Amino acid sequence: MAYETIIVEIADDVALITLNRPDALNALNSQLLGELASAVEEADASDKVRCIVLTGSEKAFAAGADIKEMADKSFVDMYRDNFFGVEADRFLRVRKPIIAAVSGYALGGGCELAMMCDFIIAADTAKFGQPEINLGVIAGIGGTQRLTRYVGKSKSMDMHLTGRFMNAEEAEESGLVSRVVAPKKLKDEAMAAAQKIAEKSLLATMAVKDTVNRAYETTLAEGINYERRMFQALFATEDQAEGMASYVEKREPQFRDK
Ligand code: HXC
Fold this sequence. Notes:
By secondary structure, the chain is α/β, with parallel strands linked by helices.
């Protein structure tokens, strides 16, 4: 499909999706989020894709939802259209791993989009924030819930109430991002991580995503029970037999997603 606000490139089993509204610092409007939801759904369904990387420009991953698009909307508009709820739910249904590669601003909906990915790799220029408070509103695609789970209540309240930005160092220390690299290395680092994931059994990587995300949705005992059953279920796959045989035989595994 031809897209106008994102660029999709597929190479070596990885779909690289680049947000591409440079004049608006990749502000998320309805068109962009609709195209992004379609692109990740296509990647999820494609035999050529085993992992997805989502990135922006050097200056901005995304500077938030498009304020110019939202400014004149009424409650009725927002509620009737379920503003960004539809696109967010489509994005969250993707079963293959998604890595966010963040350089520059990841603000408001941009920070929330990064947190909807499975993990975040950041350039040392990255700035995260939930500045919706300055616009007289609050986060609207998961920020109050996800940031709190990533970094804890105190820091999350601080970010949402003051609207201040968090730099890459603070984001790494507080667990929001998994690694920080130099800006020039960001894409390579994220692609290398994605390619490493793409070498594994897709059944196992999807099971990891499903099971780790379960930790957000359930009690510890239920989550552990879910993990145990999922672990046991993977013994029904050929990839488990191949993975363990390759270890015993001291060779590389040949996973076939079966
Ligand atoms: C629309 C935006 C935008 C946004 C930047 N632009 N962010 N347009 N929506 N969120 C546009 C600017 O209007 C400008 O275009 C161009 O991008 C460059 O931005 P500048 O402000 O000139 O750049 P700079 O001075 O470097 O400042 C960068 C910035 C600032 C600090 C990121 O742009 C900024 O504060 N942006 C808004 C951040 C924000 O409040 N995000 C939260 C949005 S609410 P023009 O044509 O005007 O020159 C949200 C809610 C999510 O995300 C929930 C939804 C359901």
